[in-house]
């Protein structure tokens, strides 16, 4: 009897009584999530100490100090490390929700709960026709690969808002716009999600984003001084040691470059001859990336349900890779967007997503494990940065190529009149 039941299940028959359909596919990622997140908590609580700098200092010292200032009703305008939009104050103040815990412990618990919400959203969205659980595994694995840094920054909270915005876009465009605006006021980059909105939903999504952004920003501007200081906060940033441009100086050190690494605007940056030029080049690359994305948007004709996620993934990859700063937590943004992309069986972003996961695995090695080697430009440190940033460059190029090929019809396609599928309004129809 047992053998017969097992054979029937394996060949597509009825699942054993008491086990709902898909339960096994749900249990596996949930179990993996529980195990990996328990390890992350042990690391940030310093039960297990990860080699290298203490990644929890940002929470236990910097965030805690900001908390003290923000609690008075003002932004820490005199602190050059505060470079964030006003809604970031909500993330820093969030441990108030758990007053019975020390600040840092409360923050880690809230990040854990946010992580669980993202998992639940992905599990729910990954069910049904045309959907896949691959995205769930990307999230489970990607956050774990980044190590304790994933829980010691507020970026996971921002990523959760971005995931919710993309998933809401499948049926509630105004909610998508509101969430995108709120995410952008947490850490700017979710604004890039607007680039991939399907043509028929642009007015509703962009309109809701504009209204929400104006209301929230206005409320902060009225209630708290210096709410708009973030607009110029990063104007004088240099080239951070983990960025793509920093590779120039890592290598130049071996040829007598007379510069130094110093804590500057909250991160370790290269300072010295040529840094201003490399920083300007990085900004120009970001401008070119924006130009390409606008050109893509003007040419794109084929929008599927997964196109908004694919476009957001490609856009954030471009801006992360060309940035003057590529902090480890930035990989969380990419992991979150890759996870949403891979919820759709028709996505072309699987290979770039794998490269992002590989870059995440290298990132935990360059920070915190071997960060001393990165700062001093040892062969190991330079090798790690070449590998991590090379993976990001490759992922960016592959994602952009896939996005273009998927959405921009060639001359032959444009000359072909719509067929019966177009008349039926299938998701992959040019519009």
TrEMBL record:
Superkingdom of origin organism: Bacteria
Subcellular location: Cell membrane
Main location: membrane
Annotated membrane topology: Multi-pass membrane protein
Segments passing through the bilayer: 30-49, 103-123, 135-154, 174-198, 205-224, 270-295, 326-346
One Pfam family hit: GT87
Location of region: Disordered: 1-23, 411-431
Family to which this protein belongs: Belongs to the glycosyltransferase 87 family.
Protein's name according to its UniProt entry: Membrane protein
Organism name: Streptomyces diastaticus subsp. diastaticus
């Amino acid at each position: 009897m047992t053998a017969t039941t097992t054979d029937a299940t394996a060949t597509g028959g009825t699942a054993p009584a008491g086990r709902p359909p898909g339960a096994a596919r749900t249990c596996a990622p949930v179990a993996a999530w529980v195990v990996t997140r328990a390890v992350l908590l042990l690391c940030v609580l310093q039960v297990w100490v990860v080699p290298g700098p203490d990644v929890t200092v940002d929470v236990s010292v910097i965030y805690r100090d900001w908390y003290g200032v923000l609690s008075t009703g003002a932004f820490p305008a005199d602190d050059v490390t505060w470079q964030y939009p006003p809604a970031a104050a909500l993330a820093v103040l969030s441990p108030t929700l758990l007053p019975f815990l020390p600040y840092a412990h409360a923050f880690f618990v809230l990040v854990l709960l946010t992580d669980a919400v993202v998992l639940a959203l992905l599990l729910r969205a990954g069910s049904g026709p045309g959907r896949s659980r691959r995205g769930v595994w990307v999230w489970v694995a990607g956050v774990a690969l980044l190590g304790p840094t994933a829980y010691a920054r507020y970026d996971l909270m921002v990523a959760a808002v971005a995931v919710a915005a993309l998933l809401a876009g499948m049926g509630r465009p105004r909610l998508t716009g509101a969430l995108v605006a709120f995410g952008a006021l947490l850490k700017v980059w979710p604004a890039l999600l607007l680039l991939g909105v399907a043509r028929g939903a642009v007015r509703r999504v962009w309109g809701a984003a504009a209204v929400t952004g104006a209301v929230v920003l206005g409320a902060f501007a009225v209630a708290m001084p210096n709410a708009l200081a973030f607009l110029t906060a990063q104007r004088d940033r240099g080239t951070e040691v983990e960025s793509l441009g920093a590779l120039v100086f890592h290598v130049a050190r071996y040829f007598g470059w007379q510069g130094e690494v110093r804590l500057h605007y909250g991160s370790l940056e290269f300072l010295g001859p040529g840094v201003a030029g490399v920083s300007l080049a990085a900004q120009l690359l970001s401008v070119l990336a924006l130009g390409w994305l606008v050109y893509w948007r003007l040419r794109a004709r084929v929008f599927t349900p997964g196109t908004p996620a694919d476009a957001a993934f490609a856009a954030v990859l471009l801006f992360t890779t060309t940035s003057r700063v590529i902090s480890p937590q930035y990989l969380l943004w990419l992991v979150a967007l890759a996870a949403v992309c891979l919820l759709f069986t028709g996505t072309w972003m699987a290979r770039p997503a794998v490269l992002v996961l590989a870059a995440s695995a290298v990132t935990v090695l360059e920070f915190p494990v071997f960060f001393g080697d990165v700062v001093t430009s040892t062969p190991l440190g330079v090798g790690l940065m070449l590998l991590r940033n090379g993976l990001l460059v490759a992922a960016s190029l592959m994602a952009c190529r896939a996005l273009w090929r998927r959405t921009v019809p060639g001359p032959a396609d444009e000359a072909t009149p719509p067929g019966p599928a177009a008349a039926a309004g299938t998701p992959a129809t040019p519009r």
